[in-house]
User: Fold these one by one.
Assistant:
Number 1:
Amino acid sequence: MAQSRANGSHYALTAIGLGMLVLGIIMAVWNLVPGFGPPDKPGGNSSKPDRGSGGILKSKTFSVAYVLVGAGLLLLLLSLCLNVRDKKRQSEDLAIAHVQRQVSAEPSQQEDRMKTSLPNTTCPATRR
């Protein structure tokens, strides 16, 4: 039951991260493609583009797009790390359970060997 909850949260984290990443990319592309804005504006859809150093177009929308892409990548990375950690923990738990089964099976096999290897003798006090 706890494993299914963990998987559900990993899927949700992945979906949110992927959605934020795609939304950020769409916002960045929307600003760069000319022709989607009003006819009086040359260029993309940004509200007030400023020319920064090096001719890079900067606006509030680009900042939001960068934040969305970064947050989406972080969430995807977090989901991946949590998934790897859970897989590792699950394999360790299976290995421990396997070792415990082997350890618990060995004493019963030794007892069976002892019973079959001992001669069938009775206690001298009980012989009459």
Number 2:
Amino acid sequence: MVTFSKEYGYVVFTGCASLVLMKYLSHKVFKAREQYNVQLPQMCSVNAETGDIFNRILVNRQNTTEKIAPFLFTLSIGGLQHPRLASAFGMFWIVSRVVSAHACCSEDPAQQHRGRLGEVALLGLFLCSLDSGKVILGWSRPCFPRRFTLRE
């Protein structure tokens, strides 16, 4: 049995914020479908004038969808030992995805790569998860002993 610290609530709220992010990105694609007249089941736009912008919006949402599973896993596991740090990394990642969603609509190619700092946040979450795994296996002592306890 695992006992969580009270601070794990931050991790839970960060996970909920990621659901809001996905809803926001889906809504953005829905609005772009209306704006650029791309009807379902058509996946991408072939319009020479506006198709590129719609396709970038769609790809941004797809990239976030591909990364949400590793994000949620590392957030939840890394948050066992480091709830505040994991939540901070998680919120940074979420904000970077929102920045990326706005930047992908820009005509300036330099702005289209904004939001890439979210990869640093994923690396931080990965390292938090590794530390939690080492503590669970007993390979190292917890940095913060009262964060969570294991009972057999």
Number 3:
Amino acid sequence: MSVNDRVELLMRHFGLSVNSMAKKLNFSRTTIHNIVSENGRRTSPSHDFYSKLKESYENINLNWLVTGEGEMLLDNEPLLAADSAVEYKVLEPKKTDLQEALAEIKKELQSVNQRIDKLERDQ
């Protein structure tokens, strides 16, 4: 797996498109496209790219990004599982943030439904 493939994995993990990564790191869309696109030139990331990436995502393991050794993220939760020496698959991220957001939406929906019921009773 090349560094370009690992950048693409990071983008998928963080839910970034070429445009959103370019904007976040203050690079042109073409620069990011040329790093990750199969149809692009597949250029190697610059030192500036690594620096800006690390500033924006402090938990990224740059050693993994450059060499492929270790885990994608510096925290203790493994994100990648090796099927073989060169093949990786992304494991499902934790869904706690989504579950919390869903709980808030359900709570708000209940409140709206209660107001609707009250308005219907008052008519």
Number 4:
Amino acid sequence: MFLSRRRLVLIGTVTVIVGVIVLLPLILTITLPDLSAVNITVKNIELEDISEDNIATLKVVFNIKNPTSQALTTSKIDYQLDANGELIGNFTKSYIDIPLNGRPQLLSNTDTNISSEIETPALDEKIMSDIRNNNQSLQNIEWTIDGNAIIESGFSSAPKIFNATW
């Protein structure tokens, strides 16, 4: 007989494995909620220090609002920082080398703050004088951030592009 019990088991097993491999990308995308509801803004930009050789240390605080019913996390935030229309630089806040349970948790229906400390050499002289003349206040400078955050849930991840001003 051509279809013996062993061949039927083998054909069934191969069919299940091929089905899982084909459907796995679909299964993984099901675990990720609609990321258009997730909102990334800039909560604050603080000046930590200005060194003698004009290197400014800034602390950028992102606020991520997760209105979905799932807990999410982020592995990386890439962003470009502009001050009064002048490019300050491209920066990255990365958690890629940290296990999932150590990354910032974006819990359901909550706001989460993530801070990124950056160093930037010699800002525009007008911006530096504004900072020095206003007791290191950054609120009179128009800050613009264009970025991309990798949002993860379960087994899947997707990029979230954002624009923010402060």
